[in-house]
Amino acid sequence: xxxxxxxxxxxxxxxxxxxxxxxxxxxxxxxxxxxxxxxxxxxxxxxxxxxxxxxxxxxxxxxxxxxxxxxxxxxxxxxxxxxxxxxxxxxxxxxxxxxxxxxxxxxxxxxxxxxxxxxxxxxxxxxxxxxxxxxxxxxxxxxxxxxxxxxxxxxxxxxxxxxxxxxxxxxxxxxxxxxxxxx
Amino acid sequence: xxxxxxxxxxxxxxxxxxxxxxxxxxxxxxxxxxxxxxxxxxxxxxxxxxxxxxxxxxxxxxxxxxxxxxxxxxxxxxxxxxxxxxxxxxxxxxxxxxxxxxxxxxxxxxxxxxxxxxxxxxxxxxxxxxxxxxxxxxxxxxxxxxxxxxxxxxxxxxxxxxxxxxxxxxxxxxxxxxxxxxxxxxxxxxxxxxxxxxxxxxxxxxxxxxxxxxxxxxxxxxxxxxxxxxxxxxxxxxxxxxxxxxxxxxxxxxxxxxxxxxxxxxxxxxxxxxxxxxxxxxxxxxxxxxxxxxxxxxxxxxxxxxxxxxxxxxxxxxxxxxxxxxxxxxxxxxxxxxxxxxxxxxxxxxxxxxxxxxxxxxxxxxxxxxxxxxxxxxxxxxxxxxxxxxxxxxxxxxxxxxxxxxxxxxxxxxxxxxxxxxxxxxxxxxxxxxxxxxxxxxxxxxxxxxxxxxxxxxxxxxxxxxxxxxxxxxxxxxxxxxxxxxxxxxxxxxxxxxxxxx
Lengths: 183, 502
What we know:
The structure holds two protein chains of two kinds.
Chain A: H1 7-29, H2 33-53, H3 57-82, H4 93-115, H5 131-140, H6 144-165
Chain B: H1 8-25, H2 37-57, E1 63-65, E2 70-72, H3 74-101, H4 106-124, H5 128-146, H6 153-183, H7 190-199, H8 205-222, H9 230-237, H10 240-265, H11 272-292, H12 298-317, H13 325-353, H14 364-367, H15 369-383, H16 389-403, H17 407-433, H18 464-479, H19 484-492
Antiparallel strand pairs in B: 1-2
């Protein structure tokens, strides 16, 4: 199933991409943590619209449910629990320009490569009506091993977080103040 | 069911990881520092079974499973075997070390097992998605291992440093992979990407961007020369068993994915890609061996020496597919035992004299002749002195590089390897000739990291597991040279990476 990029679709696409762009810029430059978290929400929502535009309905729904409904809300909760962070002193302009230059230096080749038509899209498939079936087959075939490895990774990340954060018998002794776990 | 047979070794490790979690949960001893025996044995049993399963899979013909996500070929299996052996030895190193420091060892075995699974999947992965997930599984556990002793500030510092630099390298790797995904026509399989890259009439510049990004990410994991700055600090700060793991298993996994990418995916970039790897190799050999000579801390010295060793291994990697692999595997296989032996001796000595500084090893030969003898054996083998196994590995490697017409890198390799003899011999000379200072027992000087903890361990001068490991490594280092012939023929019989005839 092909997707025709008529003017309607491409203007919609441009608007969504602008949402992704300004949302992600906002995450980095927002003056306070909570604005950055909401910018992240905008980015994630725009990405969900991108999925929708490419017929990946299930992915769009999962993106909204998991990333905005769960993860972003969790981030906002964490910020509320920690309390307002002190405003960082603004970096000098030269430093910011340097960061901007480095970031665009990394991104611009990608833009050029896309406009040059370097990508060949022979293996790309736009999902049709049977999108869910394809995802199911993929999860039990070539993505089975990565999927299981991710669950192992999450298990170990959980154990590691507990290991770093939990008070142990050996830590009952009063610790010097700089001895707090860094991570 | 048959198609899951290639991942049986990883499945065994996963099951033993879950068993370790439960054993830790239900352990009954209330005294925390006595914990760990059960978990150690479960983990060791799992790794042993996994090694047996890998040996069982070794003669199988190459195949792809799970829609091409995982490749089983004997070269990949050899890498997985080396990773599993490194972790097996590392598991035995940790118990005594952590007991003396008053830290439970159960979580350490969990992290080691999980990163071993990550490394083994990385060696067999044939798909960008699996490769990245496995790489992250290996990295995350490495950070946790580096920061394992939470009370130790240096360990925390090294973990934070490693985490930040490691995340940057992971970003580079992910970005490089996304370039590969675009260039390969939207496929994630290594063969299809390699095939698509070969189809371009002239190599697009974007392929070079992808190559450089990917090798930046992997070079960091290997601590090859321009990306090596983290290694000495992390090795020095992290607990010694973690440093041993980082220097062996983690590097073997990085080499495996580097070899597969270089020989399968980037085959259209040869020979220039090989020259870039040679450049890394030359820099690593020079930087590692030159700076190691001025180190006064044993773990820092071993860190720089392992940077030098990765240079030799990269030299074999820069050869073409079919020339370099057997010398690479032979040297890597022997390097595991030499390096693990050196780390085992370092742990044993640091537990007994309470410090890692080389100067404090003075005159130790008079009081601890066996440990010093084993350490000398391992260090001389790392330097590549004739009757020991390191000599044969190195000779074979340099010979293969010479055959591949890498004259200048080979000469630099021989030169730096002669240079390395200086700093290895320096340690040995201090141990054998200097006057012994009044050595204190470990009860008087606790590990610097754990000075605040008063531990009430019964006096045991020779921790049993560590000694066992040491004997295993030292005897392998000295006995392998007698079986180097059969070993070479096994290594020569390893198949190529699965490449589907492209």
